[in-house]
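Appendix C reproduces, verbatim, an entry submitted by the partner laboratory led by Prof. M.T., so that reviewers can inspect both the input and the predicted structure.
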Amino acid sequence: MISSRRCNDDAIEAILLYGVRPDAACNDGRSGKAIDNNQNLIPKQPTETELTIEGKKVEPPDSVKDGQRLIETPPLELGKTYAYKVSVVIIPNNYTKIFRNREITFKAGENVTLDMTKEDKATDKIEVRWVPTPDDIVDKMCELGKIQKTDVVYDFGCGDAVMLIRPIKTGKADKGVGIDIDPKMVAIAKEKVKEADLEKKIIIKQGDILDVKPQDCADATLVLLYIGDDLGARLGPVLQKSLKPGARIVSHRFTLGDWKPEKTIEVIGVDGDSYTLHLWTIPDPKKKTEPKKSGK
């Protein structure tokens, strides 16, 4: 919560609750407004959060009760309206960051509630740290996706573009498009494509893959992915709406939210490690699936 001070008066609260359970009490014993059940901005470890209010980082307290924090403002002028910008970076693992921004408006003495636990797909941003996929695993992904020489391969979150360069350089696919949010990785990918002499075959773009529209990937026939589960959950519905029937999606390790893969395999890499690969195919609505027989 944010505790706001009125000038020449005792501290009066403007409350910012992070996932307080119904009927939970504020730190000073006064009841706060309840929001979603059992949701906390401060999840259990190993998740971390970084909170910023009005551009200033707020260090986490020694303990957090019911997922709430008490932030005290400077003295505020009675009757005047204030707007605070609140940002939180949620770090659920060592490769994913979720950026959430909100604005709260209040007057000194008013009780207000801001829930930072709720996802907003329109404004939340997700970044995933790049981790390379070994060449032999890229080959296995292509095999699972039944790659063809006429395929146009897309890699959302392409990193250094190995998932594009590898299949096109070996003649297993025709063209490729990669999108990455990190300008440094885009520069690296473009250089790798140039080194492979594939500038006429592969296009690298900078952008947020969650901003992809159907027209942006209308020609995609095979999508190769290595992104986190959080980003995958957001990207899955986009791909379902954007890709044409028959297009295949192969993901290294991570799934696409509630969209269950039609096939999952485990492969052993040349490094001796085990790798999990998932496959989805965009169905053709014109083709009806025959009901399974009972066997009787």
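The chain is about 15% helix and 30% strand. Additional entries are available on request from the coordinating office.
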